[in-house]
Amino acid sequence: SPQEKGSTFLQLGSSTEQQLQVIFEVLEEYDWTAFAVVTTLFPGYEDFVDYVEVLTDGSFIGWEHRGVLTLNLTDDPEGTRLRRQLREVSAQIRLLYCSREEAEAIFRAARDAGLAGPGYIWFVVGTNLGGSERLPEH
Predict the structure, then answer these.
(1) Receptor ligand binding region domain: from which residue to which, for each copy (predicted)?
(2) Among 25-34, 69-78, 120-129, where is mean pLDDT lowest?
(3) Of 30, 61, 104, 127, which residue is 20 to 30 A from 78 by alpha carbon distance?
């Protein structure tokens, strides 16, 4: 169960669709059927949301899609709104679509809100996350 695992950061360097296909295979393997989608306004986020719907709607698995949270990171320098919004997500499994820079801010806020430790599993998807030298510090 998610409680037994530490926070997991999965990074893949392939296309968004391929990344999502692999992620859903992992979710199915571990029987993690309840998840939420978290995106920023990073280009392609509508396609990401649509493709999650395609993968879950056409599946025989009883996915429990707990909704989409779309974050606007502007005008929130202290991350106050971001922490509040992340706390409102009910699922422990979070599929995050954003840029690398946004991921840094989101994980900082998640850590400050107590959402980055054991029991929370984040899958980070993005076209520009793969092939870099390091993972976000947080």
Answers:
(1) 7-125
(2) 120-129
(3) 127
